[in-house]
Design goal:
Belongs to the major facilitator superfamily. TCR/Tet family. This protein is an all-alpha fold. It has helices at residues 11-20, 24-59, 66-90, 92-112, 116-144, 147-179, 183-186, 188-202, 216-235, 245-267, 281-310, 324-344, 349-366, 374-391, 394-401, 408-453, 462-466, 470-502, 522-527, 531-539. It folds into three domains: 25-204, Growth Hormone, Chain: A, CATH 1.20.1250; 213-270; 274-509, Up-down Bundle (Growth Hormone, Chain: A), CATH 1.20.1250.20. It contains 20 helices and no strands. Helix 2 packs parallel to helix 6 (147-179) and helix 3 (66-90) runs antiparallel to helix 16.
Length: 547
């Protein structure tokens, strides 16, 4: 291997190169460890969901069951931006390893819980770690891989996400049936240990020493604000009426905390969320598109299985398989889009194509009724999945390309946070619309008896549906069809906002290497293992043109 000529390179540039250049032989191992960690982050709730009835049967506490999920979601959302900032200030590797350890400790404690209260508390600990997993994965990829090459690797991460969504419920059900619900948490330990060992041994990034202090006040205000908003979307329309005092108080607390947070960020030496990153037009547009993608994606994942089970008579056992057309389409398109981005360096077309397909997919899904076949609904889902495939990782890629390297963590955490908040609002708002429509149609078609059937919940599983009289069952199927029609029409309307935003995205050249620059293997491109690559790596410290 020829000796690198660094005598003419400024010391500051050399430091940047060292940060951007891992050892070539370790690159693939690092990426494998990142994929395992991403799998941990995505699998957890998917695996735990099927175990919930068994958990209640063992620990009791049915009235607190929702908190098993809520505690995890709250901790994850609130800690996400903080993990991103810690990585920027003190080094990516240390914060990432800490997040993995906290997640594994929370998993072990959750598996050992002896009461519902303990399980809820331990799930909160697990969620704190989970907040740093997704952010750490994306930020480390941002450190190691130039944006020009990053698309195909982020496409691989979308594939991991799809595998988790499809296999999670199946794995969770099998583990619970054969080994007990505690192993739904213990399964994280061997996977996490492998990822921990691989990252510790092969990931070499320089340690950082922050010049300022952690913005504790900003972190506290942001945590309170995010927690209040997540609780509003979780409790609104279910635990409490939307106009109840509790929900209004939470909205007031959330808004006041976030306004206070914005004032604090303007004066903080090391703000948790530097507001200057929003001065870049592309970053702000990606935040909007990411929020809307999360809003509609998780709404679709909630109501599509429900429609297929209630209206088309599909089995609830293989609920993950019901989403195969959408998830496979999403995975395939994401990988192709990533490869094309790496080959051409162009990406502006993808947000436009993705939002067009997303609007089209939701409009088609809104046309489904009690006579729609599974083949037809599968084709509609494939259209929607293709749209999401264009958007899932391109939004992260463009967001990272729009900031300086020193803000890579907060850019990654912000993009993740906006998508998470979008999913919370989407499930809540689309769920409220769906439930109201189901109640109205049941009352119209089945009178008082229909109202009694759905007064507890607008969602009935297949087993309970079989027990209903034929007339009530027919009314319920029409009600679910009407409810999904309204929810998916809302999804189409919200997606139009993302479509409009996508036309304002500016084609800023992706920094870094690519096939057009140098025909090298993956490891060489990632490592910047030549003088030309070193120069390109140094070029990644510049910020994309703000508008």
């Amino acid at each position: 291997m020829p000796e690198k000529r660094t005598e003419a390179v400024p010391r500051k540039t050399q430091a940047v190169q060292q940060e951007a250049e891992p050892q070539p032989r370790s690159v693939r191992v690092v990426l494998m460890a990142l994929m395992i960690t991403m799998l941990l982050a995505m699998l957890d709730n998917m695996i735990v969901g099927p175990a919930m009835p068994t958990i209640v049967g063992d620990l009791g506490g049915m009235e607190h069951l929702s908190w098993v999920v809520t505690a995890y979601t709250l901790a994850t959302a609130a800690s996400t931006p903080i993990w991103g900032k810690l990585g920027d200030m003190y080094g990516r590797k240390g914060s990432f390893l800490t997040a993995i350890v906290i997640f594994l400790v929370g998993s072990a404690l959750s598996g050992m819980a002896q009461s519902m209260g303990q399980l809820i508390g331990f799930r909160g600990i697990q969620g704190l770690g989970a907040g740093g997993l997704m952010v750490g994965v994306m930020a480390i990829i941002g450190d190691l891989v130039p944006p020009r090459d990053r698309g195909k690797y982020m496409g691989m991460m979308t594939g991991v996400m799809a595998v988790a969504m499809i296999g999670g419920p199946l794995v969770g059900g099998s583990i619970t049936d054969h080994f007990g619900w505690r192993w739904a948490f213990y399964i994280n330990l061997p996977l996490g240990a492998v990822a921990l060992a691989m990252v510790t041994s092969v990931l070499h990034l320089p340690k950082k020493k922050a010049q300022g202090r952690i913005d504790y006040l900003g972190a506290a205000l942001l945590t309170v604000g995010i927690s209040a908003l997540v609780l509003v979307t979780t409790w609104g329309g279910s635990e409490y009426a939307w106009g109840s005092a509790v929900i209004m108080e939470l909205i007031g607390i959330g808004v006041a905390s976030l306004i206070g947070f914005l004032f604090v960020q303007k004066k903080a030496a090391e703000p948790i969320l530097p507001l200057h990153i929003f001065h870049n037009r592309n970053f702000t547009l990606m935040a909007v598109i990411g929020f809307i993608t999360g809003f509609v994606m998780f709404g679709a994942m909630l109501f599509l299985p429900l429609f297929q089970q209630s209206v088309q008579g599909a089995s609830a056992t293989n609920s993950g398989l019901l989403l195969l057309p959408m998830l496979l389409s999403m995975m395939a398109v994401s990988m192709v889009a990533g490869r094309v981005t790496t080959s051409t360096g162009k990406y502006r077309l993808f947000p436009i194509a993705g939002t067009v397909l997303m609007v089209t997919g939701f409009y088609l899904l809104a046309q489904m009724d009690t006579g729609t076949s599974r083949l037809t609904s599968g084709l509609y889902m494939a259209v929607l999945g293709a749209g999401m495939g264009f958007l899932m990782q391109i939004t992260m890629l463009v967001a990272q390309n729009s900031v300086e390297m020193k803000d890579m963590g907060v850019a990654s955490s912000s993009a993740t946070l906006f998508r998470t908040l979008g999913s919370s609002f989407g499930v809540a708002i689309m769920g409220a619309l769906f439930n109201n429509r189901v109640h109205d149609v049941m009352a119209e078609r089945a009178g008082k008896l229909g109202g009694k059937v759905t007064e507890t919940s607008a969602q009935l599983d297949a087993e309970h549906l079989k027990m209903l009289p034929a007339a009530i069952r027919d009314a319920y199927q029409h009600a679910v069809s009407a409810g999904t029609h309204s929810a998916f029409l809302l999804g189409a309307a919200i997606s139009v906002v993302a479509l409009i935003a996508s036309f304002f995205v500016k084609e800023v050249p992706l920094r870094g290497s690519g096939p057009a620059d140098k025909p090298a293997g993956d490891a060489d491109k990632l490592a910047g293992n030549a003088d030309g690559d070193s120069a390109r790596a140094a070029g990644r410290t510049t910020v994309a043109e703000p508008v």
